[in-house]
Amino acid sequence: MAGSSFGKYERDRNKRAKAAAKRDRRQNKSSDENTDVIEEERGPLADLSPEELLKRIEDIHRRFDEGTMSYDEFEEQKQMLLSSLPVD
């Protein structure tokens, strides 16, 4: 039972992160040229190389430092990207 609860939590968290990213892209569409940080159009995160995932993590850090991303959105996107990194 605990495994299914965690799976549901992960799905809900990913859904919230995707919605937050979409909302951010919509709000900053005219002023922010870096709105493609986590776009589903670029393919699922599982298909990205570790280098590309790290580049995206760096990008969300830069966006957070610039003040174009809220802390909650930053944390959600960071966790989603980090969970996609392969572990050896």
Give an account of the 3D structure:
- By secondary structure, this protein is an all-alpha fold.
- It has one domain.
- It is 65% helix and 0% strand.
- The protein contains 3 helices and no strands.
- Helix 1 packs across helix 3 and helix 2 runs antiparallel to helix 3.
- The radius of gyration is 13 Å and the shape is globular.
- About 16% of the residues have low confidence.
Roughly what fraction of the amino acids lie in strands? under 5%
Figure out the total of helices: 3
Give the SSE order as H and E letters: HHH
Helix content: 55-70%
The helix-and-strand class reads mainly alpha
Low-pLDDT regions:
30-43
Q: What topology does this entry show?
A:
Layout: H1 2-27, H2 50-66, H3 71-84
What's the short story on this structure?
It is built from three helices and no strands. The protein is an all-alpha fold and 88 residues long. Helix 2 runs antiparallel to helix 3.
